[in-house]
Amino acid sequence: MEIEGKRVLLYIRVSSDEQVRHGESLLDQAQALHAYCEKHRCTIVGEYHDEGYSARKSYKTRPALKQLLEAVERGDGDMVLFTKLDRWFRSLKDYYKVAEILERHGVFWAAILEDYETVTSAGRFKVNLMLSIAEHEADQTSERLRFTVAQKRARGELVSGSVPRGYKIEDGKPVKDPETEAGMNAFWRTYLDTGKASAAMDAARLHGVEFRWFRTARVVIDNADKYAGMVQGIPCEPYITEEERDRVKIRKGRSPRRSDRIYPFSGLIVCGTCGKTMGAHQQSRPKLDGTRTAYYLCTRHTTSRGIQCTNGICIREVCIEQHLLKNLDNALKAAIAEAEAREAQATPPPDFSRIRAKLERLTDAFLDGLIEKDDFKRRKEELEAALAVKPEPPRKTSQELRELLPVGWHKLYTTLNTSHKQAFWRRTIREISVTEDGIITFSICS
């Protein structure tokens, strides 16, 4: 990346607790940026410091960032530099708004301590992948630790009035909510058995717990730790065991594995015989060049408890990768064609809240003697049948599928490191299945 002679704007940010925990002070960032500019012979035309501001907050609340953008609009600089991507943004929504301003004025940016930049198309591709992951990870942890929060937790009190669905607050403690307990039990039992969030949503709905949006169910799954008996650091009655919580994390590709190795297809591959996740492994003996071959094996094949799966194939990681690279374009074309056909004959989804309201009014009318018993029973059965219809899970539109892969993605893929490849496959592939005969099939995230 050539930046010699460029006019650069430096951006430095730290939140108060980060400075204590990680030592990422304003001074440390400034020294690293100045040394970088001196080495690459570029001219510093502005330096902007945001101290005590979270990257999760709206960019409009960061005064120094607002000043930087005003400088960009005046044409004062050619490029923005910062140390790491998380100093810049952790919110995709805000990132795209600011990126639009920078692109409109021909200004690029780069993280000097990481391989992220928007000068090249490959760089922009990597940024979009990793910001998606950074935003998800930032949702799981709080950046600001307060003394009062620590005191409340020490006393065993809830920090806030927000508790996960399925719980309520009683005497300052989280307890199971009797009104939603049956639905949440059904949700977790179904998800653990099938691995499908859509099936879990249907099971919960049959017990009176409605999930209007697919992403709401994903939030529940992402917070498996809380449902294992720990809400805001306070023990409570669990919906799932700790072992089941770990299974959820493994399915989502977030196994508490001690190895530092990253497996691009971890959490995506299932056994074609039993449907369970295939675990990632590597050969115990390295090859002559020091590398170890990665492979995937059904977790039920080697278990010593319960039903043992007959699928003992060890499918190499490179075989899966080659199969996907060869067939992904055709699979995407088929998914787009299916989406177009679905859109052509799409019907509006049933309004369940409106149907329930009709059922309540019908019952009131019968109790008030306004309709006959036979008429009430017939209309009641019709409304209950309408409520029993399973709603279609949200699907990507044909336009969203067309935008799933960038032009020339094969070439860009060769520039990705293992972490970026993992992010690429997770946003592209829903599931990969491997049979005992080594036949690989996969489905697009459609």
Calculate the terminal CA-CA distance, rounded to whole Å: 36 Å
**Mean pLDDT across all residues, rounded?**
82
Using the CA coordinates, give the radius of gyration.
26 Å
Kindly name the structural category.
alpha/beta
Backbone shape: globular
Number of strands: 15
Helix content: 40-55%
Total count of domains: 3
Q: In percent, how much strand structure appears in the residues?
A: 5-15%
**Largest beta sheet: what is the strand line-up?**
2-1-3-4-5
Count of helix runs: 18
User: Uncertain runs with pLDDT below 50, 5 residues or more?
Assistant: 140-146, 254-258
Report the biggest beta sheet as strand number plus sense, adding barrel if it closes: 5 strands, mixed
Task: Describe what this molecule looks like in 3D.
It contains 18 helices and 15 strands. The strands form five sheets. A five-stranded mixed β-sheet has the order 2-1-3-4-5, with helices on both faces. Strands 10-14-15 form a three-stranded mixed β-sheet. A three-stranded antiparallel β-sheet has the order 11-12-13. It is α/β, with parallel strands linked by helices and 446 residues long. It starts with 6 loop residues before the first strand and ends with a strand. It has three domains: 7-140, Rossmann fold; 147-251, Putative Large Serine Recombinase, Chain B, Domain 2 (Hect, E3 ligase catalytic domain fold, Alpha-Beta Complex); 258-349 and 391-446, no CATH class.
SSE arrangement:
Layout: E1 7-14, H1 16-22, H2 26-39, E2 43-51, H3 63-74, E3 79-82, H4 85-88, H5 92-104, E4 108-111, E5 116-117, H6 121-140, H7 147-154, E6 167-170, E7 173-176, H8 181-194, H9 197-206, H10 214-222, H11 224-227, E8 230-231, E9 234-235, H12 242-251, E10 269-271, E11 278-282, E12 294-298, E13 315-316, H13 317-344, H14 352-367, H15 373-387, H16 398-402, H17 409-413, H18 418-428, E14 429-434, E15 440-444
Parallel strand pairs: 1-2, 1-3, 3-4, 10-14
Antiparallel strand pairs: 4-5, 6-7, 8-9, 11-12, 12-13, 14-15
